[in-house]
Amino acid sequence: MLDTGKTSPARSQIRTIVGRRRASNRGLTALRALLRSNEFYLIPLALVIGVVAGAIVTLMSEIAQVAHVMIYGIPIDVRLSANTYVNPIVAFVAPAIGGLSLGIMEWSRRRLKISNAVDPIEANALRGGRLSLRDSVVVSGQTLISNGCGASVGLEAGYTQIGAGAASLIGQFLNLRRNDLRLIVGCGAAAAIAAAFGAPITGAFYACELIVGVYAVGSAAPILAASLAGALTAQNLGGAPYSLEIAHVGSVGLEQYLALVGLALIVAIIGILVMRSSSLFERVFKQKWFPVWLRPVVGGVCVGGLAIVTPQVLAAGHGAMVLDLHREMAIDIIVTVIALKLIACLVSLASGFRGGLFFCSLFVGSLLGKFFAAVVALLGFSFTVDPVVSMLTGMATLGVAIVGGPLTMSFLVLEMTRSVDVTAVVLAGCIVTSIFVRFMFGHSFSTWRLHLRGETIRSANDVGWLRNLTVERMMRTDVGKVPSTTTIAACRREFVLGSRQAVVVVNNNDDYCGLLLLPELFSPELDTIADEIQVVELARYTDVALLPEMNVKTAMKLFDDAEAEVLAVLESADSRKVIGLLSETFARRRYVEEIDQATRGVLGALS
Asked: Most C-beta atoms within 10 A of its C-beta, which of 166, 265, 565, 595?
């Protein structure tokens, strides 16, 4: 067919579409380059993430409240845990049905061999900020089901999961650097917490302490921007779901300081006991004869039974905390609510309900503070402890013990009370609690649950690079081998001094017998007996070797313990086949390079 020089309408349309796609790709490439060139440009992105997270938090809280109203028949303006009465039948049936749906979902996940969802702390610590949005949506949905049916869990885990998940998706789409992606995930979590509590500073420090893992100069502006955007968005869409207003609180004297520091130590011990107990509750529900789908059902029935005694055990406990803050309560009633709420929380989580202990720990901590103030007054000391200040201290310190983040909890109190005096004593208590828990236990609830799964991380500090820097990636594979029966003279003729650092000595089956260091091989003291002595006599580190999967930190410990400059790498723990060599000098250099890169990311420098 002859080309008449005319373009058909179809071809013209195709060229237009292709042109638009190329222009879009060029624009996206330019945007990615801009974001990677300077951290200042992350601030607008953080604002967008904050608005998205704030809107999602508001939507989730409204859905949960509507579910409580429809299921339990409470007034629309009353929180579930603040209601004075729940129908016993509904209290048993609602959590059981919610548990059944979660049990079926977990049974299906295991049957389809789908891996567990990764939370923001694990993602930032081990995966460079990479989260699956699909998993985050599932986790947030399960959290809504759990809280909506009345299980004793908070929504904050779902808030941070979906906020961080959305942020991670955007960051991965824009091909952000590892440090920037971790920062953006922190922005999503910060905005979620800020929106939930109406406390932007609290959200910012939550991200720094618990999600990003450090207070970084370069991350301050984006995280604060996201927190402010999240808080303002939630405020304009209906108000922060977990906001608390505290009336003016008086100054705190020296005696109160000392008493409240004592309260902080007591709360720290209780927090450790709660976290230890969580593994015991999980073992009860994870018996092999106990079907996976049935566990949440039984857990829901247990929570329902506790709710008949007091509805304050239901959901997160926000309404109950507001209710109990300014009313008189008998000591036995306080103790009963504390015990039942802790049992309900542990049963809910151990049986398979999804959610967090952030607000639950605040609620129980406030009751511990109220109990402490009542006991001090009962004992007739020469001073009294302000019940509200004691409740705020107990709230913050139990939050530190279980969730972590002493500055997060301190700023939460500051934004609630607007009182520097009260915040000062709370900060002192939080620091005491944090030091005590870290020394005696070493974990927050999130990292403790990861520890039970086999992980060893204790914070969200980025250690993923450390795990990726394995012996297999660093070793040399051009290994020189020599049979164990070879004489020193023969080995000298085969390997020239300076050609390599060491030679592997092997037996007739090619199994590892030790390392022969070339400087020792060419020692002048051996010249007269070089034709008589076999190299196996000079072999060193016969019982010490590296494995390919070891990370650089483990490898360096072996170097130090063996006082070795080079070690062989074996194929596996059950094999004596040598696949490489690794020198201590090279391993340390790579370790220092990675630490330097991570440090530059913390300080906000471009890597």
From this structure: 166
